[in-house]
Amino acid sequence: MDPVVPILLWRLAFGAPPDRPPDPWFAPDKAKHFVASAVIQVGTHAALRSSGLDYRAASQGAGAVTFVVGAGKELWDRDHGGHPSWRDLAADVAGGVAGAVVVRQTRP
Questions:
Q1: What does each C-alpha distance from 72 to 19, 66, 81, 83, 88 come to in angstroms?
Q2: Residue 107: which pLDDT band, with cuts at 50, 70 and 90?
Q3: Exposed, middle or buried, 19 (CB in 10 Å: 0-12/13-18/19+)?
Q4: Angle at Cα 79 formed by Cα 73 and Cα 82, nearest 5°?
Q5: CA 72 from centroid of its chain's CA atoms
Q6: Which end of the chain is more exposed for a tag (fewer CB within 10 A), N or C?
Q7: Mean pLDDT (whole number) for 4-9
Q8: pLDDT at residue 94 in the model
Q9: Model confidence at 71: pLDDT above 60
Q10: By percentage, how much of the chain surpasses pLDDT 90?
Q11: Residue-by-residue DSSP string for the chain
Q12: Mean pLDDT of 27-49
């Protein structure tokens, strides 16, 4: 069967899927995700280092915390009427990487 037929039947029965708001790659929301993740990465790394962890363990822990916070925000959006976005998560990852680079450059 042609795949267009089931799609047309679905649209006739249930209508079109709801419109999602635009989600551009370069938007203030993405900058907020980027900066927040960079701050979380740097702050968590500093806290873990000051608690006695070596550089590698602190970096891994900070990366895990940063990713969990970013993914958690998108899951929160999904479950509470927000608009989860893979692009937001990509901005979170990029911010975490930028934070890790900053930490690496300031390592004594």
A1: 24, 10, 14, 13, 12
A2: low
A3: exposed
A4: 65
A5: 8
A6: C
A7: 69
A8: 96
A9: yes
A10: 58
A11: --THHHHHHHHHHH-SPPPPPP--SSSHHHHHHHHHHHHHHHHHHHHHHHTT--HHHHHHHHHHHHHHHHHHHHHHHHHTT----HHHHHHHHHHHHHHHHHHHHT--
A12: 95
If one counts every other C-beta atom within 10 angstroms of the C-beta of residue 88, the result is 23
- For 26, counting Cβ atoms within 10 Å of its Cβ (0-12 exposed, 13-18 middle, 19+ buried), the class is exposed
- Which residues are CB-neighbours of 84 under 8 A, at least 6 positions away? 74, 75, 77, 78
